[in-house]
């Protein structure tokens, strides 16, 4: 690929400024660490910029989105503060082909629920327990380069089923939690011309985005979600002239 | 089944009052013909009521929806006049388990696009051409009782690909059109606890809903979309106590 | 349904005669307990017969299969002793519309692997650990009547991912195991006109088939897998005459 | 990708030597034209070799398959002459990660039907009619670079539904035929670690494999089906030691 992928890393950037122990983990914000991870994983194949809630238009202007191949989304406490018009704009771009990586608590973001059509709620527990992510689609590009049947996070927030999403087109990871739950942690969807990946890991109170396996998966996912060169296939429209001849239209009822 | 299925047939009921040739085909409205079709197909297994756009709350009060197992939806020219709050209410009921049958131009209705997350647009042509619906999932209950590999409609409006929906969970019918297009005409989806079927046939200017195969499919679909006795599986919620013991939570970063 | 479903419960019936502790659990064979479970769950809606490996043609004659709507399969230690011609016969019946419920170690049976096209292997451990089956498709008829988000088996053999099956069309249960694994424990597939359900629980050394939730799921699954009244859609065949006119065939290359 | 993809193009190579009008179209065999197409599409990213039925072990020795990333398959009249042991070998390689592109009448090949688990039959007609392939997954990499909603083949053999395959994981093309049928013409499947694409066009009596859109799709498909760097995820095996502690195993029934 000669053109680098243009990725925008979006973060609500609230916890990191409000809570000291989050600030310690992510002093420049989760977005800064995610941007680093993408540069580490994709090198010269990627150009990363970041955007946050407090910027004008949340940093997601038409111009920025028009230059974004893949958008990653992290939000948790401020979903309601995201402007509906911006959400519509992001959705339109996804339908046009922009990839979207929804991370962790982005399950409840306006943009993700809007693209899914469901509530996207789940069970949770913040108890610092162990998580083991099992690979159930080992040949999927998003799992590429993982060296084992599973990988572990020593301490995480738990997300458990029932996760109220449409059945994923491809299920890539299932999480096991020490406290007794399971979760569909890596799920792909397509909407319009855009490709979407939901990836569970990432609570702000644990150093999840420094984990090498998590970073690898996010890098793979960005590559996978990149636009595929689909030409414009047209919005719905009237096609008055048939492509092939119609034998006899007969007396139309509406004449 | 001892309890009859409670079906609400919704119709915007505009064309039938505005256009004489539609009135001739459907003098009491498309909803009246659909209600008859369901009684014919399901007999004592069904209780049908109808609702239309002009009724208070479009006839879809909390009470009506609370007593509806399956809702069928027909709309075309007045999608925008459907109140957003009612759409939200219908969506909530679908997520809780109510079935939804979206008919023909309901592809562009607010409720269908909201549940899909996409634009749901398509190509069309109104030329009275022949349509042949091929069964590609012959053992699906929705195709039950069809006696041939396909069935035909002598004159219809054309709907053609690309149809901007998420990939259906089950694809049951593919239409061939005389003028050269194809279309995914019978598609199932699940959202929350609800089951959704999109079925293409049905333009108001042709007597489609008098066709015996179309009526059979709609009857099958209503049966298929009925709630399955799922108990309430709960909205997302915090589960502070683990189900199984957590060995050691360690020093939480947030202490 | 006026006609009762005709179910054949197949069991290799080896462990129960060879191992005293299995004999104690299933004195008349696993098939006898499964047959009881189906009668308990489906009552007058079902007619159950059993068949075992040692019978002539393994009890699966053309006549028996011709009168079987749904076949349940339990095998473990004697997969290789099942005659290939009988496997072909069962496969043919599934493609014609007979339902198949593959239980527990039937994952490695000839009939299941033949229908899947993959090795169907998995990880396992026999340590009497706890299993918790989470419902991830709460509105699926196979989960009908379960009263909670999950159900538990106090002591089971573990089956863990990677489970080498094609991605299920519908994933209904995911198991959590105390020892750290997860498993796709309830999976649907369609092949030809037949519907297939794989259900994990069932090791011969634990009283799994006496569990009320397990029995309920198997009963639901048999109902779900029943033939749907699909008429015969024909094997592949030449259709020399087009259904619609072909404008001009031009000079065929092969003349 | 620094390493070129290693592709083996397999052809039964019977018609081209037996029928003059096929020989005229494909004087060096269909495999030669397909090999050229891949070199044209993928350039330095690919190393192509060919193999045919009459070679020892059909040209598909352990060594050749061990060095093959993606195998394309064309067969029609001689499926039965392919040795079962070689078919097993190819299947094993697919499960290990080798991609497989099944072309046209390969729908009925031993390797394809074995991986599908179904009969894979269909309806057909050889009448030189027009085919129009509609793109129903415009953002799929296999459709990359196509410049229109559909592409046409002026004269082809017809393949029609019902096509007895498992529901594809992704449906990419649907064909419209002048004579009245439709067909799922581009379908993806995963089996084990391998990715499979079925692509309909290609009858030996028409110059299908010289068509630029067909060549583009086959090139895209080879790229898509390439192994993804999945490490070895292990065959099924016993895991006697749990990954996480098991609280109490209790009195095992089998002690």
Please tell me the CATH architecture of the domain at 5-120 and 186-225 in chain A by its name.
Answer: 3-Layer(aba) Sandwich
Helix content of chain A: 10-25%
Work out the number of β strands of chain A.
Answer: 10
What is the percentage of strand-forming residues of chain A? Answer: 25-35%
CATH class of the domain at 5-120 and 186-225 in chain A: Alpha Beta
Largest sheet of chain A: 9 strands, mixed
Order of helices and strands of chain A: EHHHEHEHEHEEEEEHE
Characterize the overall form of chain A: globular
Radius of gyration of chain A: 20 Å
Your description of this structure?
- The structure is a homotetramer.
- Chain A has a domain of about 160 residues: Rossmann fold.
- Chain A is globular, with a radius of gyration of 20 Å.
- The first copy, chain A, has a 9-stranded mixed beta sheet.
- Chain A has about 260 residues and is α/β, with parallel strands linked by helices.
- Chain A contains 7 helices and 10 strands.
- In chain A, helix 3 packs across helix 7 and helix 5 crosses helix 6.
- Helices cover about 25% and strands about 30% of the residues of chain A.
- Chains in contact: A-B, A-C, A-D, B-C, B-D, C-D.
- Chains C and D meet through helix 2, helix 6, strand 5, strand 6 and strand 8 of C and helix 2, helix 6, strand 5, strand 6 and strand 8 of D.
- Strand 5 of chain A pairs parallel with strand 10 of chain B.
């Amino acid at each position: 690929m000669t053109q680098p992928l243009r990725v925008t890393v979006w973060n609500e950037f609230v916890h990191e400024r409000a809570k000291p122990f989050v600030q310690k983990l992510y002093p420049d914000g989760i977005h800064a660490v995610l941007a680093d991870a993408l540069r580490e994983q994709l090198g010269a194949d990627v150009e990363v910029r970041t955007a946050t809630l407090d910027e004008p238009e949340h940093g997601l202007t038409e111009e920025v989105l028009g230059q974004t191949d893949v958008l990653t989304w992290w939000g948790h406490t401020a979903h309601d503060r995201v402007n509906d018009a911006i959400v519509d704009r992001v959705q339109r771009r996804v339908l046009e082909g922009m990839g979207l990586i929804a991370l962790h608590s982005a399950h409840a973001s306006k943009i993700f629920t809007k693209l899914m059509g469901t509530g996207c709620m789940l069970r949770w527990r913040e108890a610092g327990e162990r998580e083991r992510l099992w690979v159930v689609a080992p040949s999927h590009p998003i799992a590429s380069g993982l060296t084992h049947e599973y990988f572990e996070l020593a301490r995480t927030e738990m997300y458990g089923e029932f996760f109220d999403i449409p059945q994923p087109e491809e299920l890539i990871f299932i999480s096991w939690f020490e406290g007794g739950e399971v979760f569909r942690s890596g799920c792909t969807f397509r909407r319009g011309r855009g490709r979407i990946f939901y990836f569970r890991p990432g609570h702000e109170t644990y150093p999840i985005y420094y984990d090498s396996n998590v970073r690898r998966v996010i890098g793979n996912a960005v590559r996978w979600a990149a636009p595929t060169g689909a030409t414009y296939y047209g919005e719905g429209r009237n096609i008055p002239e048939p492509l092939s001849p119609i034998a006899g239209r007969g007396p139309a009822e509406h004449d």
